[in-house]
Design a protein that fits this description.
The strands form 2 sheets. This protein has a 5-stranded parallel β-sheet with strand order 5-4-3-6-7, sandwiched between helices. A 3-stranded antiparallel β-sheet has the order 2-1-8, with helices on one face. Helix 11 (288-313) crosses helix 16 and helix 13 crosses helix 14 (366-379). Helix 2 links the parallel strand 4 (50-57) and strand 5 (94-97). It is 47% helix and 9% strand. By secondary structure, it is α/β, with parallel strands linked by helices. It contains 21 helices and 8 strands. The protein binds flavin-adenine dinucleotide (FAD). Flavin-adenine dinucleotide binds at residues 249, 258-262, 265-266, 300-301, 303-304, 307, 366, 369-370, 373, 391, 395, 397-399, 402-403, 406-407, 410. Flavin-adenine dinucleotide binds next to helix 9, helix 11, helix 14 and helix 16.
């Protein structure tokens, strides 16, 4: 064996490391679809002459929470982008379909690899699977190296002093912040090793990730996928959005009022360490209100961390209320009202705009997620898990921890959740956060000519206003499917029964 030299580039900084030749490792890519700050890939390239990157598509292994339709569209493009980025550096992303362990074992045979490197994921079922893969590979005599994945801190390192999990956000965030001063992101490898041409790869098309329906088109138009898209979104947000974030983050009509990094973070096209480090650096150059704004943004990243902390320690969170009494709540079973919600046909414009934004682009603004969530749970009386499942299928950023924590937050059944009696009024929320009705007009074109004064409550508008805007309630735009005040009273009465 002889020595191997590899050069990495981070901005203008060049790093040279040495390892051993004549060796092969596999790097198993999952939700870390990037080159920069990818510790498993970085380390493998340092140490092995040949590094074979592989992505294994095995949705059957997690049948309850396999990626939903919108996530699959994202995944398709993300894999395509990663494969292109690797090809530019003379590497090749190998694709395989089937259960992870046998797929890895076959690839080990095909390549003669002696080691498999991967970055950790934290969902309970994935954790269990990973432990099984690791055990089996080790017993085959294969070295396994597993690295911290897509969190700022491992969930077991962010426990309380008495070694129990946090259930309240603020003490969790305060304790975590103290440990994050040294967060850094690794560079992207400058040079990669070639993958021998005889190593077989499945075709991306064979994963069948793209639906045959119109919706995929909307998602494709709305986003720039892949690591380059994530890096560009971060840069753009730091330059143009960060300083004003605390003011703009609640305005759904302002597309660049938030960072829109969530799908990139979910798929690991950008690393959370990278986002934290760059935003912290930018924050240091700001002052006054702009610096406070950066703090608000960093706090949102800690909510992401908190959700993963909760899921790790309370693995039933996606299915069961964390507050036991909510399992006795009497939920409604209305099929037609649920369909109206899913299709953006409730007659409440801000709700309909949000649900249509979700359908068309695979993403919904956070403020509107809270409004539509409250509407489903409290106005329609439908249980939060139904909303969670619809979001799971429809969001490009669908994330088990974040989705479950937030649905339980809206329902009032989670850890540190919004109290149940906080019931959003869709009309006042609309007026407050979309005062000109711009967001509603964008996604509910039937109402485009309604004056701002009435756009959030067309059902209260005088006949001549409706006529002037060519809105025929119950014809080209629905009448409200429930009376909000009545529904609110009913929800509170139901809640009294479980307290
Ligand atoms: P920004 O405002 O720019 O925030 C930056 C990042 O902070 C986000 O990308 C996200 O990673 C994190 N973040 C922000 N708000 C939250 C929050 N409330 N909880 C946890 N992390 C947060 N987010 C997901 O990524 N996946 C989901 O499946 C998901 N489901 C949700 C369901 C409901 C009912 C609600 C109310 C919220 C949900 N969120 C989810 C949280 C939030 O709406 C999105 O993270 C945010 O809208 C993404 O847009 P952004 O990247 O522009 O956010």
């Amino acid at each position: 064996m002889s020595e191997k030299r590899v050069v990495f580039q981070l901005g203008t900084e060049i790093v040279t490391v040495t390892g051993m030749t004549n060796t092969t490792a596999i790097v198993w890519f999952r939700r870390d679809l990037r080159l920069a700050d990818n510790p498993a890939f970085f380390e493998a390239l340092k140490l092995f002459e040949t590094v074979v990157p592989v992505y294994i598509w095995s949705p059957e292994e997690d049948s309850r929470w396999a990626p939903g339709a919108a996530s699959r569209v994202w995944l398709y493009h993300s894999l395509e982008a990663l494969a292109n980025a690797m090809a530019e550096k003379q590497s090749r992303l190998i694709l395989r379909r089937g259960e992870a362990l046998p797929a890895l074992q076959t690839l080990i045979k095909d390549t003669g690899a002696t080691a498999v490197f991967w970055n950790r994921l934290y969902e309970p079922s994935v954790n269990e699977q990973d432990a099984g893969v690791e055990k089996a590979l080790r017993s085959d005599g294969v070295e396994c190296e597993i690295f911290p994945g897509n969190l700022l801190l491992e969930p077991w390192d962010s426990r309380k002093k008495d070694d129990t999990a946090y259930r309240v956000f603020t003490p969790f965030a305060n304790a975590l912040k103290e440990k994050l001063d040294d967060i850094k992101a690794d560079p992207a490898p400058g040079v990669m090793s070639a993958v021998p041409p005889e190593i077989y790869s499945d075709d991306l098309e064979s994963f069948d990730l793209l639906p045959k329906i119109e919706r995929a088109g909307g998602i494709q138009e709305a986003w720039t996928f892949g690591e380059a898209g994530g890096q560009a979104a971060l840069k753009d947000f730091i330059q143009n959005g960060l300083g004003g974030y605390s003011k703009t983050r609640n305005l759904p009509a302002m597309e660049d009022g938030v960072s829109r990094l969530s799908p990139y973070l979910h798929f690991g096209e950008i690393s959370i360490r990278h986002v934290w480090a760059d935003v912290s650096k930018a924050r240091a150059k700001l002052s006054g209100a702009e610096q406070k704004s950066a703090d608000v943004y960093l706090k949102e990243l800690l909510w992401r961390e908190f959700s993963h902390h909760l899921l790790f320690h309370f693995p039933t969170m996606p299915d069961k209320p964390l507050r036991e009494e909510f399992s006795r709540y009497r939920w409604a079973t209305s099929g037609t009202q649920l369909k109206a919600w899913q299709r953006g046909q409730t007659g409440y414009p801000i709700v309909d705009a949000g649900m249509r934004q979700l359908w068309e682009t695979g993403w919904m603004h956070n403020r509107v997620r809270m409004i539509v969530g409250s509407f489903l749970i409290k106005d329609l009386g439908i249980e939060w898990q139904t909303g969670e499942e619809w979001f799971w299928d429809s969001l490009v950023d669908a994330d088990l921890a974040q989705n479950a924590m937030n649905w339980q937050w809206v329902a009032g059944s989670g850890a540190d959740a919004s109290p149940f009696f906080r019931i959003f009024n869709p009309v006042t929320q609309g007026k407050k956060f979309d005062p000109e009705g711009e967001y509603v007009r964008r996604y509910v074109p039937e109402l485009k000519d309604m004056p701002a004064k009435w756009i959030h409550a067309p059902f209260d508008a005088p006949g001549e206003v409706l006529e002037g805007a060519d809105v025929k309630l119950g014809d080209n735009y629905p009448k409200p499917i429930v009376d909000h005040d009545e529904a609110r009273k009913q929800a509170l009465a139901n809640y009294q029964k479980i307290r």
